[in-house]
Amino acid sequence: MVSTLDHAEALRQANEPGGHITLTDLNRSNAWRSQLADNGIVEVMDRNDTAAYLLTPQALYDLVDAVRERDAEIETMSVRAMFEARKHRTDVKTGSELREAAQESLARRLTMLHEVLDDAEDGE
What we know:
Blueprint: H1 4-14, E1 20-22, H2 23-28, H3 32-39, E2 41-46, E3 49-55, H4 57-85, H5 95-123
Parallel strand pairs: 1-2
Antiparallel strand pairs: 2-3
């Protein structure tokens, strides 16, 4: 598997002169294939705008893997932050007590939402 840094470098190179091709060149020749094989990615330009990126199957798999890894890291950090924020709480609830507290919280939020909607209707 190619590292994320290698893909970042390939993306950077794809945005440099010679790292991209035009739609016309894509249609007229197959010289871009060697660039795609070397870098795993080629930027396709339509005039001065990026029209697409061509990726090799492996580059796509690596990109998806990298996104999944970042998602897992974000989830881990979020859970860690949640536990850190709540570490000094002493009002831990479980079972029916937790269920009742959750229902009360939802009821309060529903009431607040209704108040906002009622205010919006009154303002029309």
